[in-house]
Amino acid sequence: MQVKITDQAKCDIKSIREYIAKDNKVASASFTVQLKRTFVNLSIYPKIGRYRYEFKEGDIYTYVFKSYIIVYKLSNSELKILRVLSDYCKLTTILRKSDRRN
């Protein structure tokens, strides 16, 4: 299954990397490698995440990676990474705001 990362998810990842790099550049690079590995694993086992019934868009899943929530959508041949969010945020509020922008 092909992995596609949305522009919003790329922005999330960049912000996380920059935040980590303030304290430790090596940890920031390691985070990026581990996150990419997680994306590959999700493409192999896409239903390992939690199905989110509360979103009407369909086939939205979340997967916890370290202290972040990976939000992704499944289609027949693609796993689309929608967001990579801190676990303390309100998931439904953030996703609804990003839907309004698209």
Topology:
Blueprint: E1 2-5, H1 7-23, H2 25-44, E2 50-51, E3 60-65, E4 68-74, E5 78-86, H3 91-101
Parallel strand pairs: 1-5
Antiparallel strand pairs: 2-3, 3-4, 4-5
Helix pairs in contact: 1-2
What would you note in describing this structure?
The protein has 102 residues and is α+β, with helices and mostly antiparallel strands. It has one domain: YaeB-like fold, CATH 3.30.2310.20. Helices cover 47% and strands 27% of the residues. The protein contains three helices and five strands, in the order βααββββα. It has a five-stranded mixed sheet with strand order 1-5-4-3-2. A hairpin with an 8-residue loop joins strand 2 and strand 3. Helix 1 runs antiparallel to helix 2. The protein is globular. The two termini are 24 Å apart. The model has no long low-confidence stretch (mean pLDDT 88).
